[in-house]
Amino acid sequence: MKEILLYIVPSTNYFQNVCNIIKEHICPGKFLIYVTTNKSTNHLKGIFEGMKINAQEIFFIDCISKSIGDLNKEDKNCICLEGPQEITGLSIAINKAVQAIPGEKVLFIDSLSALLIYNDDCTIAKFSNFIINKMRINNVKTVIIALDSDADTKTIKIVSSFADEVKKDAY
């Protein structure tokens, strides 16, 4: 059975920490399914290139590009949702990606904190429980990111109880 990991990261050097966590979990033969709720896929690809992360091995589920007008309709490695408030659509997109991508994969959710801006605590707790159980059934390693400033929220505490391991501090 694959692990479910919750990383609580500081807001300072946030994205550097996220990139370090990605590097820790991506390796040849594994495909990363990256749920982005706070940066467009185009922006992420530029950052990843500079960080020596191969974006060709990443399938993006983009919850932000449509709403900010940074959409690349020709990108075959991306599903764009209407926005981070579309939790049902996000669940469906994750499930479709997991089913469609062959071989070993890692689901990377960046971030619960951003989802909490657009959705209430109860919705995100239910979504997290559903996705975590779905990934366990499908034997998909899952990495979930949350900001340390949200660590004491009810939702993050609930998600912590679903995870196999909670990691805190800088990476």
Describe this structure in words.
- With 171 residues, this protein is an alpha/beta fold.
- It has one domain (14-147, 160-165): 3-Layer(aba) Sandwich (Rossmann fold).
- The chain has helices spanning 14-25, 41-50, 65-68, 87-100, 112-118, 121-137, 154-162; strands at 4-9, 30-36, 58-62, 78-80, 104-110, 141-147, 165-168.
- The protein has a seven-stranded parallel β-sheet with strand order 4-3-2-5-6-1-7, sandwiched between helices.
Summarize the SSE layout with pairings.
Elements: E1 4-9, H1 14-25, E2 30-36, H2 41-50, E3 58-62, H3 65-68, E4 78-80, H4 87-100, E5 104-110, H5 112-118, H6 121-137, E6 141-147, H7 154-162, E7 165-168
Parallel strand pairs: 1-6, 1-7, 2-3, 2-5, 3-4, 5-6
Helix pairs in contact: 4-6, 6-7
Q: State the domain count.
A: 1
User: Which percent range fits the helix content?
Assistant: 40-55%
What structural class do you assign from the helix and strand content? alpha/beta
CATH class: Alpha Beta
Biggest beta-sheet profile: 7 strands, parallel
CATH topology description: Rossmann fold
Summarize the structure.
This protein is α/β, with parallel strands linked by helices and 171 residues long. 43% of the residues lie in helices and 23% in strands.
